[in-house]
Specification:
By secondary structure, the chain is α/β, with parallel strands linked by helices. It folds into 2 domains: 4-36 and 108-234, HAD superfamily/HAD-like (Rossmann fold), CATH 3.40.50; 37-99. The protein has 10 helices and 8 strands. It has helices spanning 8-18, 37-50, 57-64, 74-80, 86-97, 103-106, 115-125, 141-150, 172-184, 198-207; strands spanning 23-27, 34-35, 110-111, 128-136, 160-165, 189-195, 212-216, 232-234. The chain has a 6-stranded parallel beta sheet with strand order 5-4-1-6-7-8, with helices on both faces. Helix 2 (37-50) runs antiparallel to helix 3 and helix 9 (172-184) packs parallel to helix 10. The longest helix has 14 residues, at 37-50. It is elongated and about 65 Å long. The model has no long low-confidence stretch (mean pLDDT 95). Bound molecules: magnesium ion. Magnesium ion (MG) binds at residues 28, 30-32, 196-197.
C-alpha cells in the first residue's frame, strides 16, 4: 500500500490552480513508474537459452528465478542464484548491456502498482506531467512512448512532457540536474517529484523546497546517498 501522504499531491495541484499557477508533477520512469525486473528477467532467460549448450545448468537457474529475484545487477542476481564462474558472470553483464537500453525490451516492464492511475489523476486534475528519465535518445524513445501508452499513462493529450537523456554517455545525475532548468522554464509551480534514486530526490528537494518529494522504495543504485528525512517514502502508488 502506498503512503497516505500521496493524496497531498492532489491537494497541492488544486491549490496551485486556485492561485492561477500551472501545477507541475515530475516523474522518473525506471523503478519509479515502471518495474524493470521483468525486463531483467527476460534478458537473463534469453542469456540462459543462448548459452544452454555450453552451460546447461543455466536453464534450471533461469527457470527458477522470478521478478522478485531481480536486483540492481543481473550478474549479482545470477551469482546469488549460484553461478560462480567469473567469465560467465562477465558474459551476462555484456549480454545485458546490449539489450537493457533498447526499445523492444522496454515493453517487458511492468507498471509499479497504481502508478498509471495516479499519474492519470494528476493530469486530469490539471497538472503538467513531466516524465524525466535517464533513458537515452537514439534507442529508447519509441519503446518508452509505447510502454507509457500500453500501461495507460497519459501522453499525446497535451500537458505531457517526455524528457530523455540526449545521449547514452551522459551521467544520469548531471542530466537531471540540467533538466531542472527546463522544468523551471515552464514558470509553473512544481508541486511534486517522484524518484527511486535518493540522490536525485535529494536534488529535487534542494531545487524545489516547497514541493512534495516522493521516494519510491523499489531498487536503487549501490552506494546511493542517504535520503533526506523530508522525503515521503512509498513502496507504490496504491491509495487507501
Ligand atoms: Mg529511476
Amino acid at each position: 500500500m502506498g503512503s497516505p501522504r500521496l493524496r497531498e499531491v492532489f491537494a497541492r495541484i488544486d491549490s496551485a490552480l486556485s492561485r492561477g499557477r500551472l501545477p507541475v508533477c515530475v516523474f522518473d520512469l525506471d523503478s519509479t513508474l515502471f518495474s524493470t525486473a521483468p525486463r531483467n528477467l527476460q534478458i537473463l532467460r534469453e542469456f540462459a537459452r543462448a548459452h544452454a549448450a555450453k552451460h546447461p545448468e543455466l536453464t534450471a537457474i533461469a527457470a527458477r528465478m522470478t521478478a522478485e529475484d531481480m536486483g540492481w545487477n543481473v550478474h549479482d542476481d545470477l551469482a546469488k542464484a549460484g553461478v560462480r564462474d567469473p567469465a560467465l558472470l562477465a558474459a551476462v553483464r555484456e549480454f545485458w548491456a546490449e539489450r537493457f537500453f533498447r526499445d523492444e525490451y522496454l515493453l517487458h516492464d511492468h507498471e509499479v502498482p497504481g502508478a498509471a492511475a495516479f499519474v492519470e489523476r494528476c493530469h486530469t486534475q490539471g497538472a503538467l506531467i513531466y516524465y524525466l528519465t535517464g533513458r537515452h535518445v537514439g534507442g529508447m524513445e519509441i519503446g518508452t512512448v509505447q510502454s507509457l501508452r500500453k500501461h495507460g499513462f497519459p501522453f499525446w493529450r497535451g500537458r505531457c512532457v517526455l524528457h530523455l537523456k540526449p545521449d547514452f554517455e551522459m551521467n544520469d545525475k548531471a542530466f537531471k540536474d540540467d533538466a531542472i532548468d527546463d522544468i523551471r522554464s515552464y514558470r509553473g509551480e512544481v508541486v511534486a517529484s517522484f524518484e527511486n534514486e535518493p540522490g536525485n530526490a535529494n536534488m529535487f528537494l534542494a531545487a524545489f523546497p516547497d514541493a512534495l518529494h516522493v521516494l519510491l522504495q523499489t531498487i536503487h543504485s549501490p552506494g546511493a546517498e542517504p535520503p533526506r528525512p523530508e522525503l515521503i517514502l512509498t513502496p507504490d502508488f496504491l491509495m487507501r
